[in-house]
Amino acid sequence: xxxxxxxxxNRTEGSVTVFCGIDWAESxxxxxxxxxxxxxxxxxxxxxxxxxxxxxxxxxxxxxxSPEQLIPVAIETSRGLxxxxxxxxxxxxxxxxxxxxxxxxxxxxxxxxxxxxxDALVLANILRTDMHAHRPLPSDTDQARAIAVLxxxxxxxxxxxxxxxxxxRSLLREYYPAALEAFLGKQFGLxxxxxxxxxxxxxxxxxxxxxxxxxxxxxxxxxxxxxxxDTEVERLRQVFRGECARRPSTVEDTMGHQLTSxxxxxxxxxxxxxxxxxxxxxSFRRHPDxxxxxxxxxxxxxxxxRVLAAIGDDRSSFADARALKAYAGSAPITRASxxxxxxxxxxxxxxxxxxxxxxxxxxxLRASPGADAHYRRRRERGDWxxxxxxxxxNRVIGQLYHxxxxxxxxxxDHAFTSSSTDLAVAA
Length: 427
What we know:
Blueprint: E1 18-23, E2 28-35, E3 40-47, H1 50-62, E4 73-75, H2 81-86, E5 93-95, H3 98-108, H4 116-130, H5 142-175, H6 177-183, H7 193-201, H8 205-209, H9 213-222, H10 229-240, H11 249-284, H12 290-294, H13 301-311, H14 321-328, E6 333-337, E7 340-344, H15 351-367, H16 369-380, H17 385-406, H18 412-415, H19 419-426
Parallel strand pairs: 1-4, 4-5
Antiparallel strand pairs: 1-2, 2-3, 6-7
Helix pairs in contact: 3-4, 5-6, 5-11, 5-13, 6-10, 7-9, 7-11, 9-10, 11-13, 13-15, 14-17, 15-16, 15-17, 16-17
C-alpha cells in the first residue's frame, strides 16, 4: 500500500547517498549506515539515554547529515524518545513493520540467522532499495500528537474498565445474582456510580439483605443521584431481600472480599476514564480540525479525537482518499491469482481507527438520513450488517478526507446524492 514517498519536498530519493537502519531494543539500539551501493559505512551500538542519542546524531553528522541534507532512517517503531530525537527538521523517518523486515531479511540469508546488527543493516537496505514504497512518519503538529496520547490513553482506560466490569459480572454470577438483577438493566450497568456505591456497602447477599432504607438512600446520594431516590431505594430493597440461591456463609464472605478488591480497581478505572475524557475534550476542541470533524453526523468529541489521533493533521500523509480508506481498513482488498479472484475485507489496518469508525458509522444511521438510506440500500443488495456498515464507513472516510483537504464542513445535501450514484461509488 503506497501512500506517499519517504523523501521531503527539497530532496528526492535519487539524491540520497547514505541510509541508516536502527534495530530498536529496550536498553540499547544498533545502528548501521550504508551507501548507495550497499557498502557498510559504519555501525554502532548506542545506549537508550541522552548520551546514546547524542552519539547517534554525531555518527549521522560524520557521514554528511545536515539540516539541508538529512539522512533517512528506518526503524521498527514509531514511538519513544529515540524517535523523538530523530524527528528533527524534515528527516525522512520510516517505521518499518517487523514482519516486513523479517521478509526482507530472507533476501540476504536463507539460513534465517538473526542478530541485532544484522537487522539494522537489513533496515538500512530497505531504504536503499524500496524507500519509495514505505510510508514515512507523518509530520503532525505537537498539538495533534498530544491529542493522540490522550485519546489512546482514554480508549485504553475504557477497555480496561470494561474488562473489570466483565470480571465483576462473572464473579457476581457465582454467588450474588441479586446484584446483577438490580443493575445490569440500567445504563452503564455495573460501571454506573450507583452500582459501585451499593456493592461497596454490601459486597455479599447477606449484607445486602440487611441494608436499611436510610443506608441505601445514603449510598445512592454518595453516588450523585438526585431524583427518584425513594423509588429506587424501594426497588433495590425488594431485589436484595428476594429469594435466591446462596452459598455457605464462609464461602460467601470470601467471595465478598474478592468483589471488594475488584470494585476498588473498577472505581479507579472509572475515575481514570472520566478524567481522561475531560482532558481529551478540552484538548480536542482547541484543534483547528475539530470543527470539521464534529460537523459530521454521528461523531462526538471522544470519537472525533480518536479519529484525529489515528490520521493526524499532516495533510500530505495520505496521497489520496483511497490511501486513507485502506489505512482505516474500510476499503476492500482484492486477491487475484490466475482465474481466482476474491474481494474481501482488510486484515492489515489501523485497529484503533476501524474500531472508532464502526461506532461512528453506527451512530450516523440515526443522525444522518443520507447515511441511513445508504446503509439500507446496501442491505437490500444483500450485504449483511457488518458489510453495509463498513461500506458506509468507507463513504464517510472519503468525505472526511475531502473536507479536511478543502477545509469545508460536512454538508448532508452534497454528501449523499442519488441512489444510483451511491451504489456505484460503494460497489
